[in-house]
Amino acid sequence: LDAAAISPMDERQSAEAELLRGQVVFASQSAGDALPSLLGAAGRLEPLDPGLAQESYRDALDAALTAGLPPSGAELRDIAGAALAAPPGPPPKCNGLLLRGLATMAVDGYAAGVPLVLRALTAFRTQEISPEESLGWFPLAARTAFDVWDFHSATVLSTRLVDLARARGALSVLPSALLCLVSNRVLAGELDHADTLIAQVRTIGEATGSRRLVDRVALVTEPWRGRETATLRAVDAMARGTDRHQDPRDGTLGSGHWAKAVLYNGLGRHEEAYAAAEQGAEEPGELGPAVRSMAELVEAAVRSGRPSRAAEAARRLDTPARASGTDWALGTTAMVRAQVSEGNAAEALYREAIERLGRTDVEVTRARSHLLYGEWLRRADRRADAREQLSTAHVLLSRMGAEGFAERAWHELRATGATAGSRRSPSSQVPS
After folding, report:
1. Is 203 inside a domain boundary?
2. N or C: the chain end with fewer CB closer than 10 Å?
3. Could you say which DSSP state residue 12 is in?
4. Is residue 134 within 8 Å of 173, Cβ to Cβ?
């Protein structure tokens, strides 16, 4: 690139070189530092190559979100506004639809953009897209699927992306693709499957001499396993930013707060979970770790005697969940609202959560709904009903390796007077 900069180039070649420079900086150094080159290239390419300009705006929006720019901030709105004003690119139309949906979220709010994003994700799943287009667009599409609560799209796209990156030897794409798929399999309750992916992550880390990816994967897996030392080690490594590739502004800091909140809620240490979740939920947007921290904040606030804060957080989570409208979203907000409700209203919400989440593959959240419902029933002195829910939770959580939450279910089950058996070897029979 430096050699090209001093060679004669026409405007298109110069713009393409600027785009490539931004992509290299984004992939290897800093998302925030890549933004000027990506935006500059996008503007210059608009009259020359609308398709390449569209890709430039895609990378600029991706870099802005990765760098931790507030979803409601002026800088992100400016980037999104430029993307919306740019001429449309060539087919496939799902590319432009995804870009328009994300940009609309930034300019007009989450609720305005989420229907466009959901349509784009459906198109990515169902349309024939070339391998080159897939490698360019699937990374952002797969990550965005989590933000709009579309678990089916997240599963399909992250799986296809990993397979394609392996087949094509796309080593610049494979690490983030593996991280996305690990996150997906953990939420599906398949920690054993995640372990096979983690082995590949470690191999990549050893080959590149960087622990960044290994630490990021640990943020996803270790809290669910209830492993405090391993979780805190990963959180500290990401917070220090000692790896030369680490962008100190990126979303891993928020992910670290979320990871600690999950860990401590699972271990029943709700004061510590509350402190972590409060930090993780500070960002006001509906994308990324902040919204995930909100669910942890509600549970921690309820259990630590902060009902007003719990109710406020539940309302904040409910807004994007209803805008999405998927069973994952509506099941999660039902689980959260149940915790700040009483009597028949609470019970109806717990049942709704379990029913909706049962129509998805998000087994971790379904298992937690059974646990929370069982704990609520035990406090209401409905021991037989509590045993049924807690037994289901214990089996599910133990089977998936979520040891902290499984231990919590085991203690609650014993408190009902049941003979809970082994903490680690539950019955394989799960009530439907």
Report:
1. no
2. C
3. H
4. no
